[in-house]
């Protein structure tokens, strides 16, 4: 059963494997113009470039998520008023809440979009790198590319090494440093969301009333 589900998942994500591997190979070609094509730094920078491209493509969704989060915060006092007024009637409460969302142009589910959209992309990235680390071709990543990526080294650690299976301390140290950096950047991104300015919510006007007279 799980094998069939895995096959279905891979079939759905197959176009993403080609897209991710294509961007990765493109960055590898670009950095190979100035660096050793078989260097771990070439592949490391290619992975960073691929991550940046994914982040840039997701910027509109993150902006929408931030706006939705702000709108939901501003709506909390009105939602509490509705709870006091219609708390005994769940159906009426749901209707009034949805009407409030419609009047202010707020979609409470929009905050989930970045997570839902980037999940398959990140899985595709993980699968492509894991497959390449096993010296196997995938998408536009050829056998030669996969072997070069798997054997590439950064600070003495092979890209294909794992934290528990590596025979060198360099892998554990480098992994720990990267985890600290990733955690710091994640919290930094979260703190910038709190600094985004926002305007007060205004109800949406009907088209006929909004037109100039």
Weakly predicted, low-confidence segments: 192-211
Quaternary status: single chain
> How much of the sequence is in beta strands?
under 5%
Principal-axis shape equals elongated
Query: What order do the strands of the largest sheet run in, or round the barrel if closed?
Result: 1-2
Number of helices: 7
Sheet having the most strands: 2 strands, antiparallel
Query: What's the structural domain tally?
Result: 2
Structural class: mainly alpha
Q: Give the C-alpha Rg.
A: 24 Å
- Report the end-to-end length measured between terminal Cα atoms: 64 Å
Helix and strand pattern: HHHHHEEHH
Q: What is the tally of beta strands?
A: 2
Q: In which range does the helix fraction lie?
A: over 70%
Average pLDDT score = 76
Task: Give me a quick take on this structure.
With 213 residues, the chain is mainly α.
Helices and strands, with pairings:
Blueprint: H1 2-31, H2 40-86, H3 90-104, H4 113-133, H5 143-151, E1 153-154, E2 157-158, H6 169-193, H7 207-210
Antiparallel strand pairs: 1-2
């Amino acid at each position: 059963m799980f094998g069939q589900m895995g096959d279905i998942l891979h079939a759905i994500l197959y176009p993403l494997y080609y897209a991710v591997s294509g961007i990765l190979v493109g960055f590898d070609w670009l950095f190979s113009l100035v660096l050793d094509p078989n260097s771990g730094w070439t592949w490391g920078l290619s992975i960073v470039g691929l991550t940046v491209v994914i982040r840039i493509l997701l910027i509109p969704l993150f902006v929408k998520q931030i706006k939705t989060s702000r709108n939901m915060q501003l709506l909390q006092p009105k939602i509490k008023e509705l709870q006091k007024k219609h708390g005994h009637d769940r159906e009426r409460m749901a209707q009034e809440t949805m009407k409030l969302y419609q009047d202010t142009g707020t979609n409470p589910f929009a905050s989930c979009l970045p997570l839902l959209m980037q999940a398959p992309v990140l899985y595709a990235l993980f699968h492509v790198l894991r497959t390449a680390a096993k010296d196997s071709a995938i998408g536009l990543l050829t056998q030669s590319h996969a072997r070069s990526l798997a054997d590439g080294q950064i600070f003495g650690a092979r890209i294909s090494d794992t934290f528990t299976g590596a025979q060198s301390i360099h892998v554990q140290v480098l992994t720990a440093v990267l985890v600290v950096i990733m955690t710091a950047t994640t919290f930094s991104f979260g703190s910038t969301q709190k600094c985004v300015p926002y305007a007060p919510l205004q109800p949406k006007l009907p088209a006929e009333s909004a037109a100039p007279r």
